Structure formats: C-alpha cells, structure tokens
From TrEMBL:
The protein's name: 2-hydroxyacid dehydrogenase
Coiled-coil annotated spans: none
A Gene Ontology molecular function term of the record: NAD binding
Name of a matching Pfam family: 2-Hacid_dh
Lineage: Bacteria, Pseudomonadati, Pseudomonadota, Betaproteobacteria, Burkholderiales
NAD listed as a keyword: yes
Amino acid sequence: MSKEALLVVTRYPEADMIVLAERYTLHVLAEAPDRAALLAELAPRVRVLATNGESGADAALIDALPRLEIIVSYGVGVDAIDLAHAAAKGIRVTNTPDVLTEDVADMGLALMLSVAREISRNDARVRAGEWGREHFALTSRMYGKRLGIIGLGRVGRAVARRAAAFEMRIGYHDRFRFDDVPYAYHDSAAALAADSDYLMVCAAADQIPRGAIGREVFDALGPNGFLINIARGSIIDEPVLIDYLADGRLRGAALDVFWNEPAIDRRLLALPNVVLQPHRASATIETRAAMAELLRANLEAYLAGQPLVTEFTAHLRRAN
C-alpha cells in the first residue's frame, strides 16, 4: 500500500522527520527548488499539511491544495494560519497545546530574572573584561514585586504558580474573569499595567489584535516597569516599544518573540535594557519530543477516522 503524501511547510528536527518518513511520503516545501512546481505536482493528492507556529499556512497555500482536509501544526500558536480561509473551506486544524506550557513558563521567569538583574548584560561585561574597571549599576529585585499577567490561560497560570514562589503580588487581565484563582482581576491591559512592576504577555495572538499592547499600556507601566513577552510578537506595538525603551519611558524588556522573525528590528540590538531570545521558549528536548508525538497522534487519528486529539476549533465556531 502506498504511503500518504504529507506536505511539510518547514523541516522539523531530523529525528521527527525520520519517524514521519516511516509512515508518510514527505515533501518539504521550504526545500523545493521550485515551490510552484511542487505545489502543482501535489495538488491532486495532498490531503494533509504539516506546518509550525511560525510558518503557518496562508490563503495562497491553502488555495494551492484543493484536496486539503487538515492542517496539523507543530506548536500551540495558530495565528500564522489563515484560520478564516481554512474555516470557509471546511479545513480542520490541530495544534500542540499543554505539552509546552511548563517550559514556556520557565522561560518567562528566566527572562524576567535576566532583565531585572541584568544577567545577560553583566555576563557580556564580565567577558569583555569590564569587571574591576567599570561601574556596575544596581538592579531590581523580583521578590515581593507586582506581576501583571496578560492572558491567564495555561501558560499564564503556570507563570503565576512560579511567581508565587517569589512572593510576588499577582494580577491579571483576560477576556474572562476567573473565580478559581486568588489573583486580582483588571478589566483592561492598561489598568493591569498601572498596578504592575513587571508585565508579562502570555495571551494567544488569535485573541488580541496586532499591536494591541502599545502606548497606553506602556504609559501605565511607566519608567520603572519591565515588559516580558513570551506569547507572540504581533501582540506588541514593537516600534513604539523600541521608542519607549530607548528614551527611558520603560525600564526594560525581555522578548522571546518579535514582529518579523528572524529578521528583527536592528534597533533592538543596540538597546542595553533589552534581553533577546530567538523564539526558544518551548525549545527543550523534552517538549519538542512531546510536540512531535502529539502532531503524529493527530495525523494518525485523522487518517484512521478517529477523533482528533487536540483540534483547534475556535475558527470553525467563528465561521458559523
């Protein structure tokens, strides 16, 4: 029996590709010498598209595959997938939630510590031989400070559990007010920022417009405030953030995600009060293995006519 054709938008880690190749005939779109030719060749037979949170699947790609039935994504974020277009065509979508929650939350705390205590900056200065020759400024503590969390979903709650160990006072803003948490609710991101020393963005990008966290929120956070983003770069008004960091209207920021990854705004590289990461919050051996396993489980369930393990359905509800 011939293998099912699987179009992979961007190559996954090699160990995962080897496992997929045992079950499917793989075609990697990013490696095709002629993308259009590959899509034309596969159009009559590809039912399944495998992507990731960064590459997604736009309307043009979806339209190029008229037999497409399902998009399986390696990652929790689905904002790079044209969900409305997928819904209009009845295409199902899966992602890999839950398995990356704890590692993403770990990164959030690590970034907060790094920017507050200037760990990355001081590491670079020690390596440059400045210890003993240059003045090292005092930094900010986390213990007992106010942490505002935008988006109290899986990751937001995991961050809050960790922050509680620092005896931080925790507040949150979300589309929903939750009765099962002891944290203070604020009805807007700006109101939360005004009551925060650290503001961490944990919300899903499909729930917040592009650039929604901008001038009003930054003004409320103020010149002693720190911003941490472990969600999606699109949520932040990045040009405004850069201006606020450059002229001291915000004390610092720690960012794992950006507007134009990996070609980020080069002005960020010159700012000493920013910690930068290359979108690596979920990039541990353990989490990536679990993500790959969940992606395969969704694939196998679909092709066997079984219920999907982690189907993303919000776009289908909106379409109806």
